[in-house]
Design a protein that fits this description.
The structure is a homodimer of 95-residue chains.
Chain A (H helix, E strand, L loop, with lengths): L1 H7 L2 H12 L2 E2 H6 L5 H13 L3 E6 L2 E6 L1 H14 L13
Antiparallel strand pairs in A: 1-3, 2-3
Helix pairs in contact in A: 1-4
Chain B binds a DNA duplex (30 and 30 nucleotides) through helix 3 and helix 4.
Pfam family, one (chains A, B): HTH_5
GO molecular function, one term (chains A, B): DNA-binding transcription factor activity
Keywords (chains A, B): DNA-binding, Transcription, Transcription regulation
DNA sequence: TAGATATTTAGAAAATTGTCTAAATATCTA
DNA sequence: TAGATATTTAGACAATTTTCTAAATATCTA
């Protein structure tokens, strides 16, 4: 649960997530949306990947990035626990 | 939305939130749960407060901290948008 | 195979963050 | 009012993060 929270702390990375919500994109297409070098975007993508928030797949010269919704589900569960929407949803404490 | 995400990026602060989920606590009580000085905990509390995730109220010598669920609700909405659990929860565009 | 395109890796500099000690502020009580 | 307790503020320092440029890797195509 630590890596996803760290990954979401950066506004650039949250914007990347919003872009990927619409459709899968190549690293280059993602970079076009930012005023930042491609290596920097590549680094952000790497952090999102380590956190398992996105996954990548090479197709020829391009690498396509896409959202990985499972970890987002886990994060939602974490928040539900906080506001006590839980107690029955699952059964896991702490974490 | 930036301050809450930043605030949640630190494990100490997430643990504080988990403690406050159970009941309101004084700064000193919170500090007892950590292997860290009181000024450090005070600093973490300040960041949580700036993000509006917690609120504080002085009662005599003590300052009690408590969870502020509204921002957590907003965060949950943000996550719902990501996994498309939305479309009707807020604005119902086409579809 | 050479050159073009897409992307990542490496390494460094600057900015931000987390933690500490020392000192300040606020409140209570004798 | 003086001393004790609870907490924060200030300032410094180390660790982490963000960003850059330069170079490396991977793939395609002529």
């Amino acid at each position: 649960m630590n890596l996803p929270f760290k990954a979401l702390a950066d506004p650039t990375r949250r914007k990347i997530i919003m872009l990927l919500k619409e459709r899968d994109l190549t690293a280059g297409e993602i970079a076009e949306h930012f005023n930042m070098t491609k290596p920097s975007i590549s680094h952000h993508l790497s952090i999102l990947k380590q956190a398992d928030l996105v996954s990548d797949e090479r197709k020829g010269q391009n690498i396509y990035y896409s959202l990985n919704t499972t970890v987002f589900q886990e994060l939602i569960n974490w928040f539900f626990e906080i506001i006590d929407y839980n107690e029955g949803v699952k059964n896991n404490e702490d974490k």
